[in-house]
Amino acid sequence: MSDYRKLSNHLGYVFQDTALLERALRHRSAGKDNNERLEFLGDAVLSLVIAEALSQHFPSAPEGELSRMRASLVKGATLAKVAREFELGDYVLLGGGELKSGGHRRDSILADVVEALIGAIYTEAGFATARDCVQRWFKARMESLSSGEALKDAKTRLQEFLQARAEALPDYSLVEQSGLAHEQQFEVSCRTALHPEPVQARAGSRKKAEQAAAQAMLDILQSKS
């Protein structure tokens, strides 16, 4: 049995039921008693808690802006960052194939584990405790939020960056689609006139892969400007 004391310190919560914690950490590749149902539950709790907190922090913000803020906080990339802060990759339980392919570093798997942990805390301790944990985990990110540029998605920001320089819009193309139907991976390339060499990114959906490729391209272009 793993020593979860360090993980508990990161989470700010100590599970009484170690089996429940291990289920939250178990990817579907590691067996049937995995974290998918807890992930489903945690996703709903996370969305509600973040929506509630945003409405309180930004009482005059319109619904559309609140929705964009929530999307920026609950998106997979943000959850994966939270997971890395908690060093969840050291604890996630994977099947042999995922382990060999570096699944403990994959954004989609790490994001799912964060949601599953929220679902597990809700299951064991109830909504109030789960809400306290989520608010604590996301406090700094929520306080740094503001309307405007930071809330625009990467494709929009890249497009505006190019338009401001009278350049053509970026071109996205699907390089590869692989995997089984329920866990496909999409590799997308992004090309721009300012950086003709294609930049590639991979994610669990084409939309997410395009966003990741746009962000990578934008990082390159901004570093040159």
TrEMBL record:
DRBM domain residues: 153-223
CDD domains per UniProt: DSRM_RNAse_III_family, RIBOc
Chemical reaction(s) catalysed: Endonucleolytic cleavage to 5'-phosphomonoester
Keyword terms: Cytoplasm, Endonuclease, Hydrolase, Magnesium, Metal-binding, mRNA processing, Nuclease, RNA-binding, rRNA processing, rRNA-binding, tRNA processing
Entry's EC annotation: 3.1.26.3
Keyword tRNA processing: yes
GO cellular component: cytoplasm
MF terms in GO: double-stranded RNA binding; metal ion binding; ribonuclease III activity; rRNA binding
Gene Ontology biological-process annotations: mRNA processing; regulation of gene expression; rRNA processing; tRNA processing
Catalytic site: 43, 115
Enzyme superclass (EC): hydrolase
InterPro entries: dsRBD_dom (IPR014720), RNase_III (IPR011907), RNase_III_dom (IPR000999), RNase_III_sf (IPR036389)
Subcellular locations according to the entry: Cytoplasm
Self-association state and partner proteins as the record states: Homodimer.
HAMAP family the UniProt entry points to: RNase_III (MF_00104)
Job description of the protein: Digests double-stranded RNA. Involved in the processing of primary rRNA transcript to yield the immediate precursors to the large and small rRNAs (23S and 16S). Processes some mRNAs, and tRNAs when they are encoded in the rRNA operon. Processes pre-crRNA and tracrRNA of type II CRISPR loci if present in the organism.
Name assigned to this protein: Ribonuclease 3
Organism: Litorivivens lipolytica
